[in-house]
Specification:
It comes from Kyrpidia tusciae (strain DSM 2912 / NBRC 15312 / T2). It contains 26 helices and 27 strands. With 742 residues, the chain is α+β, with helices and mostly antiparallel strands. The strands form 5 sheets. The protein has a 7-stranded mixed beta sheet, sandwiched between helices.
Length: 742
């Protein structure tokens, strides 16, 4: 039975859709999704044909084959493994149900070996090598004057050895009139032999066997960029149960179990440190290069490495629910949200193959029948053209680049949740930033407390802390910390009422107090003339003001400052170097403070005093002016603005389900420098995809043009076709060199 995965394609649930992107509304009656692992996918075109076959199966609403991660997603009724393998028999596709099924399960069915052998040690490469020796021997025999039948026999043996795997898949396809890549190759080789071109047939079979092995090896390198993530977490861990220590598989560990992690060991599951102190390298999750200190109460993640001390960790999530598992699932299935370029390529490929096949048939029949041309040359030229009818290079041009980029991003602590978002971030023209927690550290501190009547500093903080105790705003945390540092107990509050984006009110000691921004006090008609000079002075220093007062008077002023991130200015400069036009600061803070922060970090435009709905309008306006706009925020409070942007980038989201679901791009720690890295990676991926499409189309066009004057030979056709596939795959692997800058 397949394992349903309802979170598979969730995108920003409950948030407004972005124009030109998939709808994000949750559908209460949406059919279940079922995930399967695949093996033996030989090419992207065969994967597309398998996808079409599954879509037509009974009970299936939709289906997606993720060629990059070798997975199948079925929406609707689950299909049995036997039924799926029957549909994939044309390419010898093997299936294991369940998203978590991996190499061990497939190896148990004789599909994969536990340790993948190098490409040159695979059986088909050995057969191709023997075929090459036979081809060379046949050429020698022909030159030495040996009987033609001897050389022909050697060529025939070379054809069988070099094309054995192709024929096993191609012959059944011919009988079913299913002309996929292997079927087209089988027809071409068989036709060449039928008209007496034994040398060309043997050469084509040999070249195809070698090139297919090289292509699979190159694609496997791209897949390893994802697979390496899964190998970061150990499969076993030491736990303490009933006073006994034992080593058990991670699948058998329950929430609440206590893991014992010694120095130098990897942490197997997400948890919370309950004893001990250490430093942990959590680069696997957050991309941080330096170890992070951990002690009792701190969270740790599966796949991170314990450096210095022994710790005991209470498990907080099972293996399939860990942060690392969610990261892997998001990366592996990112291909499901296909980029517009890939959708175009897939549509083009569906037209290209039948069109070229019809053209090849016409080339074989029309010249002899209409103009009286010789049959054998016409058939030969048609067979050569048939070899370039498979659009493999074109179909693989986008997914191999997307999969490689996803793996690179994930290892650097950046989650890009689909090919469409990778393409969008590469096309961004402007980026907007939230202030608190994004350009600043997000931990403001109280710098000044000034009373205007008889209240002392302690009274002010006690009353303010009492009201702010019920608020979630970052400034409330600063006031509460200031009161705690002075040993003050927050006052008891009655009749508390919150005004989001403005402030709050409550009764403390029988007196009603209001606390909030100067703007809110002015909106309520409070006269601030007596304190305007002080407010302006603090704001010019980049500080945020919180006023405390009664209904119509101000009794105190609390100044709060938030430290600008040390990397913020460099990040803004790097974005401009990466081709981003205007950078904009959007904040609910007052204009003077916002301008001070804006000058410090070097943004081009500052918009202050914005409520959440104002930020959405600001992002929409920026999209009208610049087209594609990114928004960087904390992933929770800025969710509406993140959704309104072309690409929403959430910061500091390790272990946070809401942010992982809400953002298009999620940064797994608070490293702002990953924003320009993500933009550079997106731009590099776009360049690679464009280059790949050009390479594929150029090679196909050149082959078509060479075919009409009769210059396209069989061996040149196979070299051009498979060479293009190898070129686009190797070109995509250049993305492995893109790294965050220190």
């Amino acid at each position: 039975m397949a394992v349903p995965n309802d979170r598979l394609l969730d995108r920003n649930p409950g948030i407004a859709e972005k124009p030109g992107q998939p709808a994000n509304r949750p559908d209460p009656v949406r059919p279940q999704e079922h995930v399967y692992r695949l093996a033996n996918l030989s090419c992207a075109d065969c994967a597309a044909k398998f996808e079409d076959k599954v879509k037509r199966a009974s009970g299936v609403v939709d289906a997606r084959v993720l060629f990059g991660s070798s997975q199948l997603i079925v929406v609707g009724q689950p299909l049995s493994v036997d039924e799926l393998e029957r549909l994939g028999a044309f390419d010898n596709i093997k299936v294991v149900a369940g998203a978590d099924a991996a190499a061990p399960e497939l190896a148990g069915r004789g599909v994969l070996s536990a340790e993948r052998s190098p490409w040159w040690a695979e059986p088909r490469v050995g057969r191709a090598a023997m075929a090459l020796l036979l081809i060379a021997a046949a050429h020698v025999l022909q030159g030495s004057g040996a009987a033609p039948v001897i050389a022909t026999t050697a060529y025939a043996a070379a054809v069988l050895l070099g094309g054995w795997g192709t024929f096993k898949k191609g012959i059944p396809g011919i009988f079913r009139l299913d002309f996929h890549m292997n079927a087209l190759m089988t027809v071409s080789v068989a036709g060449a032999m039928a008209i007496g071109y034994w040398s060309e047939a043997a050469t084509v079979a040999f070249l195809f066997g070698v090139s297919e092995a090289l292509e699979n090896h190159a694609m496997d390198r791209a897949r390893r960029s994802i697979r390496s993530l899964a190998e970061m977490a150990p499969t076993r861990a030491m736990v303490r149960r009933e006073g006994k220590e034992m080593i058990v598989p991670v699948e058998a560990i329950r929430v609440g179990d206590v893991m014992i992690v010694r120095p130098g060991e990897k942490i197997a599951l997400d948890g919370r440190v309950i004893r001990g102190r250490t430093e942990v390298n959590q680069a696997a999750i957050t991309g941080e290069s330096l170890p992070v200190a951990k002690e009792a109460g701190d969270a740790v993640f599966a796949g991170s490495l314990n450096h210095s001390g022994a710790i005991e960790v209470e498990v907080t999530s099972r293996a399939g629910d860990s942060t690392l598992a969610r990261v892997i699932a998001l990366v592996e299935r990112a291909e499901a949200e296909r980029a517009p370029t890939q959708e175009f390529v897939n549509r083009f490929a569906r037209i290209y193959t039948p069109a070229v096949t019809v053209l090849a048939v016409g080339m074989a029949l029309i010249p002899p029948l209409v103009w009286g041309a010789a049959w054998l040359p016409s058939i030969y030229e048609a067979l050569a053209l048939l070899m370039v009818a498979c659009p493999c290079a074109l179909v693989v041009s986008t997914p191999v680049a997307v999969v490689t980029a996803m793996g690179v991003a994930a290892r650097s602590g950046v989650l890009i949740k689909g090919g469409i978002h990778l393409e969008n971030i590469g096309r961004l023209r402007a980026i907007a930033f939230d202030k608190t927690g994004t350009l600043t550290s997000g931990e403001p501190v109280v710098t000044d407390v000034i009373g205007f009547q008889t209240m002392t500093e302690e009274d002010i903080l006690r009353v303010a802390a009492g009201i702010e105790r019920y608020s979630e705003h970052p400034l409330a945390g600063a006031i509460l910390r200031a009161a705690a540092d002075r040993g003050l107990t927050p006052g008891e509050v009655e009749d508390f009422e919150s005004f989001p984006g403005r402030g709050a009110r409550g009764t403390v000691g029988g007196t009603e107090y209001w606390i909030g921004s100067p703007r809110w006090f002015r909106e309520r008609g409070v006269n601030l003339e007596s304190v305007n000079n002080r407010i302006g002075g603090f704001q010019e220093e980049g500080k945020t003001l919180v006023l405390l007062g009664r209904r119509d008077t101000v009794t105190a002023l609390i100044a709060v400052a938030d430290r600008v991130r040390p990397s913020a200015r460099e990040v803004v400069a790097n974005l401009k170097m990466a081709g981003i036009g205007p950078t904009v600061l959007l904040t609910g803070d007052n204009p003077a403070t916002a301008r001070a922060i804006g000058r410090t970090v070097g943004v081009d435009e500052v918009r202050a005093g914005l409520l959440p709905e104002d930020k959405v309008r600001a992002v929409s306006e920026l999209r009208q002016r610049y087209g594609r706009v990114g928004m960087v925020g904390d992933g929770v409070n800025d969710a509406p603005a993140l959704a309104a942007a072309t690409t929403g980038i959430a910061m500091g989201t390790s272990g946070t389900d809401l942010a992982l679901e809400a953002a298009d791009v999620a940064l797994m720690n608070d490293d702002l420098s990953k924003v320009p890295f993500a933009v550079r990676l997106g731009r590099a991926t776009l360049r690679i995809i464009q280059q790949n499409i050009f390479i594929a189309l150029f090679m196909k066009t050149a082959a078509l043009l060479l075919a009409f004057p009769g210059w396209l030979t069989l061996w040149l056709a196979i070299v051009g076709d498979m060479g293009a596939t190898l070129l686009v795959t190797a070109n995509a692997l250049r993305l492995l060199r893109v790294r965050p800058r220190s």
